[in-house]
């Protein structure tokens, strides 16, 4: 009887597990799959369609004002849906102001003790009020002189949130060496940030963009170099790398360019009749064509094969997981490629 009872209990447990709304596609190998939920009209549709691939969602809808108060609104429907599906939710808070990342605002937040105290108070209130599981600090374009202050700021956030059961994630630019003087990445002390935060989300995308010459948006060779440096400074289990669900279209005649969603690529190819080319070193795709106005264009982007290869770097280096920027811009095969890339 004891044996039959034991088998009955085991059977019940297994049945409960198999029928529970867990994220089978993403969670079968315990890797994090983080989707960025930006202010895109298609983001919610992407969430409710592809939630089974996700383990985390970060809603990119908040910034600070100069007094340390958080500005923005929570996408409550998305947060509620994600929480019901056992997806960890994060509130991404940045130093975005107007149409750029404001270095002066970041300096004020991390450097002024009164403002900093208000900012941390606002963070705690934000996660509590909106049922988030944690905070995602996404400060960019920080001045190198704020390196120590920024690390200390993250430490204080973590010390405030962790005892209350909340997580701290920090987004950082891809780095390849410890250079405190670098104008873009010098403010990010990987080793110190890795001590404080629960997760470090490395933005291994925007390798190239319309601000410079054309090239891969997230070349595999470039990503690997960034990963190798990252894991020399930060514990593996905290590192989340990023892949883009977008590309860039450079107008080489006018010397400018625009972002292009992956889901828009098939229509572009059909309209111009150009042949995509695979770049072996970067495992990325390029496309060259001449527009109706005579201007010469080059597009760099990802396809299913390149996304799978780059996602698999989380397995190769035994990282915490992968992140996607951003939900709603992906094409039809994107999530299947992510899932395939997470197979051992």
Features:
single chain; 344 residues; alpha/beta; eight-stranded parallel barrel
What does the model show?
- This protein has helices spanning 2-19, 24-27, 43-50, 76-84, 103-111, 113-129, 147-161, 190-196, 220-233, 265-272, 304-311, 313-316, 334-341; strands at residues 32-37, 56-64, 70-72, 88-94, 96-97, 100-101, 134-138, 167-173, 199-203, 239-244, 246-251, 256-261, 277-279, 284-290, 296-301, 321-325.
- The protein is an alpha/beta fold and 344 residues long.
- The chain has one domain: TIM Barrel, CATH 3.20.20.
- The strands form 3 sheets. It has an 8-stranded parallel β-barrel, surrounded by 7 helices. A 5-stranded antiparallel beta sheet has the order 12-11-15-14-13, covered by helices on one side. A two-stranded antiparallel sheet has the order 5-6.
- α9 links the parallel β9 and β10 (239-244).
- The relative contact order is 0.13.
Summarize the structure.
38% of the residues lie in helices and 25% in strands. The protein is built from 13 helices and 16 strands.
Question: What are the SSEs and their pairings?
Answer:
Layout (H helix, E strand, L loop, with lengths): L1 H18 L4 H4 L4 E6 L5 H8 L5 E9 L5 E3 L3 H9 L3 E7 L1 E2 L2 E2 L1 H9 L1 H17 L4 E5 L8 H15 L5 E7 L16 H7 L2 E5 L16 H14 L5 E6 L1 E6 L4 E6 L3 H8 L4 E3 L4 E7 L5 E6 L2 H8 L1 H4 L4 E5 L8 H8 L3
Helix pairs in contact: 5-6, 6-7, 7-8, 11-13
């Amino acid at each position: 009887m004891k044996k039959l009872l034991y088998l009955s209990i085991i059977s019940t447990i297994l049945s409960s597990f198999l029928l529970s709304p867990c994220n089978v596609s993403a969670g079968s190998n315990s890797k994090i799959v983080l989707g960025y939920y930006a202010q895109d009209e298609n983001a919610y549709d992407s969430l409710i369609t592809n939630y089974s691939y996700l383990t985390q969602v970060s809603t990119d809808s908040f910034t600070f004002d100069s007094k340390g108060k958080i500005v923005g609104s929570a996408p409550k429907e998305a947060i509620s849906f994600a929480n019901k599906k056992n997806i960890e939710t994060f509130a991404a808070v940045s130093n975005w102001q107007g149409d750029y990342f404001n270095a002066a605002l970041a300096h004020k937040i991390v450097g002024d003790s009164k403002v900093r105290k208000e900012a941390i108070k606002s963070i705690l209130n934000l996660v509590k009020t909106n049922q988030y599981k944690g905070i995602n600090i996404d400060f960019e374009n920080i001045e190198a002189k704020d390196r120590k202050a920024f690390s200390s700021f993250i430490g204080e956030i973590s010390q405030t949130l962790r005892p209350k059961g909340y997580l701290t994630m920090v987004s950082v630019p891809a780095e390849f060496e410890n250079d405190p003087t670098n104008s873009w990445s010098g403010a990010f002390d990987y080793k110190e940030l890795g001590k404080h935060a629960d997760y470090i989300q490395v933005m291994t995308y925007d390798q190239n963009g319309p601000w410079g010459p054309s090239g891969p948006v997230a070349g595999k060779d470039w990503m690997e170099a960034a990963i190798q440096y990252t894991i020399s400074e930060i514990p593996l289990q905290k590192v989340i790398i990023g892949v883009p669900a977008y590309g860039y279209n450079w107008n080489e005649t006018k010397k400018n360019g625009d972002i292009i969603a992956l889901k828009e690529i098939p229509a572009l190819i059909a309209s111009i009749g150009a042949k995509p080319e695979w770049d072996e070193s970067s495992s990325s795709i390029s496309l060259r064509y001449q527009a109706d106005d005579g201007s010469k264009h080059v597009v760099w982007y990802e396809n299913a094969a390149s996304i799978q290869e780059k996602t698999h770097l989380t397995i190769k280096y035994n990282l915490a997981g992968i992140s996607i920027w951003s939900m709603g811009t992906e094409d039809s095969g994107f999530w299947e490629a992510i899932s395939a890339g997470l197979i051992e």
